[in-house]
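[stage:ingest] chain + small molecule (calcium ion)
[stage:ingest] validated
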Amino acid sequence: MTKIYAHRGYSEKYPENTMLAFRKAAEVGAEGIEIDVHLTKDGELVVMHDENTVRTTGTNALIKDLTLAEFKALDAGNVKNGEFEFEAPPTLREVFELLVETGMECNIEIKSGVFEYPGIERKILNLMDEFGLRDKIVISSFNHYTVCRFKELAPDVKCGFLEESWLIHPGAYTRNRGVECFHPFFNMLNHENVQDLRNNGIEINAWTINDEEDMRKALRLQLEIAITNCPERFLEIRKEVCGK
Ligand code: G3P
Ligand code: CA
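[stage:predict] done
[stage:export] tokens:
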């Protein structure tokens, strides 16, 4: 059965990549959350989408130039028209505490596409091991070097290539690098590339599936993970289609 992961938490209704959104995702029964991870200036693992904090906090700064204390002083909760209270953006450690508490799974997107954040893969793995979370997490990145570095460090941790372009033969590309999953932009999935991925034994975890017809298609394709901004609606449709 296709698992439903809440994209950046539960970002249709709550400020993205906040503990509030992650808790709400758990409350509605999502199997997992999708999060974006960066490194601060002092080497701490933190959760936010963009490299620059302005869109989600109103403060114009790069995460890589902020200390953890400076990052924690930002307000990630108050971007939706003052609808929500102050909330500091989370660290990865705080998210892991929630995963342990709720049993939720997590797709970590390592945001090393603009700034490479040297050593970020080892830091994430060490923290996963501290919390015993190797089997609850899938690692992905648009930076495929990052994915391969992670796979080399931890062959037993599931990894996936994030991809927005319409790759030719994505199955062999993925399998030949010992990577188990492919994370496509949902619209690029067609009969040909789904068959190609399946023929190579690759799991398909697609994003971001918000439209009802797309949700039904994702269930028909039997994706392993469907990443959505609307987990509640998707769970209802899955219940209707799959009975659970
Ligand atoms: O991980 C899937 C998706 O989140 C990738 O794109 O830009 O939303 O991080 P983006
Ligand atoms: Ca992401």
